[in-house]
Every structure is written in C-alpha cells, then in structure tokens.
Amino acid sequence: MRLWELVARRAERKGLLGACLELYRQWVEDEIKVEDPSPPSSLFSYFLRLDYSLWLWLLLTLSALTITAVTVTEAGLAVLLPARYVLGTIAVLFLPGYALVEALYPRGDELSPLERLALSIGLSLAVVPLVGLVLNYTPFGIRLYPVLASLTLLTDAIAFIGAYRKYRYVSLLARGAKVGAR
Fold this sequence. Notes:
Layout: H1 3-28, H2 43-48, H3 50-74, H4 81-93, H5 95-104, H6 113-136, H7 144-181
Helix pairs in contact: 3-4, 3-7, 5-6, 5-7, 6-7
C-alpha cells in the first residue's frame, strides 16, 4: 500500500496530524516498513533525486557560498563580513566532519541526529588541523586562500565519496527487495 493511501485512510479516523504522528511512531518502533517503489537506478539519478541527495546539494551550496563570501569580502565589500564569519565557522567546524560522517555511515539509521551532529563537529576539529599541518609543508603555506581551497576540495571530495556509498547502499537494498520478492 502506498504511504499517502495509508495516511488518507487513517486520517478519516484520527485527522491528518494524528495519522501522521501514529505512522511516524510505528515507523520508529519498526512496526511498519516504508520502501521507495522506484529507487534511483544510477548514480546520476541519485544526484537528481533530492529526497536522496539533498544533504549533498546543501553541503556543496554552503561550500560555494563560503568561497563567495570570503572572496567578496577580501575584495572590499565589508557589508558581507558577518556572512563570511557565519559561513566560515560552519565550513571549518561542521562541514568536513559532516561529509566524513556521511561517508563513514551511509545508512541513515546507524546514528541518531544528535550523534551525527556531535561526531561531525568532533571529526571537523580533528581533520582541519591535519589539513593545516599538510599545508604547512607545501609552498602555499597556511594562508587564507590555500586553506579555503584545501578545506573545500577535501570536504567536497569526501561528500562525493559519501554520496557514492549512499547510492551503493540504496541500490543494494533495491536489489535485495527484488530478490526477496521472487
């Protein structure tokens, strides 16, 4: 049965909010199982399906906005300095660790949201100094643009690895469901 049909059927008795809350509780307690009837069939279709890859697009957007804010404020537009501070803090203290968490734990149910947040911040605090250490031994040194470029490239590369691992997990689930249905 499709999810919207189940919600509509239960909404007649309990109202829409009550039906949604009850179904959510049953899903959390593993009383019901929700499956995608048409999971992405290729990595490209995974990227296009926002219900699967929204996390990746948000991460890439935040990375691009950070680069833009830093570049624009360095060029003299000081009005965007608060945006640079906020985006820079997110880009340094959260995004590298979040990308690593998504790559290490591709299933959504392995960690709670609070554990994902804490692990993302902790891993960022571990990865960023390593990037600085590596940059220290390069001709570029530890300056603004090399640090910005290195962190952005590392974060985006790890995020794409995470997206690939998530896609592989989804495709394995879809194949398992097809094999189990036979």
